[in-house]
Write a structure and sequence with these properties.
This protein is an alpha+beta fold. Helices cover 40% and strands 15% of the residues. It has one domain (3-202): Cytochrome p450 (Orthogonal Bundle), CATH 1.10.630. Strand 6 (184-186) and strand 7 (190-192) form a beta hairpin. The N and C termini lie far apart (47 Å).
Length: 203
Amino acid sequence: MSDEEVRDEALTLFLAGHETTAIALTWTWWMLSRNPEAEARLHVELDEALSGRAPSNEDLPNLPYTQAVVSESIRLRPPAWAIGRTAVGDHRAGDVRVAAGSIVVVSPWLLHHDPRWWPEPEAFRPERWLADPTERPRNAFIPFGGGPRVCIGEPFARLEATMLLATIARRWRFTGRSDRVPEMQAVITLRPRGGLAMVAVRR
């Protein structure tokens, strides 16, 4: 990449990466609060793997369920719910002709809720990520896009979200202030409309 491209990618990493990870963790805490069995399993893993200390990169192999919680959360509520691309040449996708210069929008939200690839697509089931991933097509899960234009920040975002979840959840849990399901606000990112108030409870 040129110096200008490196600069642009670095800005994207710092600016776009901050909001998307924050939104992903917001939805994660809400889903855990509504799924006590998953929350309890997360706490057991953290207690056994960390013994009360803060996590480090070396702990990742011992945190498979924690990573599965992050994956399941961004499957159900992908911060980048729609991804647009400009066709650089004429293309045919099935019976649809895509002319050069057309804007093509792919929706991770739709792919992530497709029952062909995701049994019980509306259910929060982190354990599905502990099974054989070859049971579904590679591009059935694209929270960071796919192909040569996949988000350069994906490894960092996954590490950041897992470390934050592990660091906070080893000492805290969150409960909802009401039973209402937050309304989704699909703007550039998929956020809970009006924010999501929760109560922090020390474990």
